[in-house]
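chain below, 102 aa
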Amino acid sequence: MKFDRNRMLPSEFFIPCSECQAGQMHRTRVVYYTWLGEDLITVPDFPAWVCDVCGRREYDLNALNQLSLILSPNAGKTTVRQRRINPKTAPRQKGRRVSRAE
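prediction:
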């Protein structure tokens, strides 16, 4: 069994296909397409599991999460936290203490 460092999994590793139940899902790299508003975004060499019989694709969840962070509208922008200003509280009125003896 060969180990491919780029894929972080043994190259012969596979799982049964959940769609056709006949094929086996192999990890490979494909072109990923997604729409971002009106723009078509393509990502080459995207990690995915592909069935050798029906061709079903399941994309790597870690890669999808990283891509969504990159494509978010706030990517690369510094976040500015605004300080919360607490309203001034009125000074407490000193009242008479009530003792239990009363």
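Strands lie at 3-4, 9-10, 14-16, 24-36, 39-51, 57-59. The domain at 3-71 is CATH 3.10.20.860 (Ubiquitin-like (UB roll)).
thats it, cya
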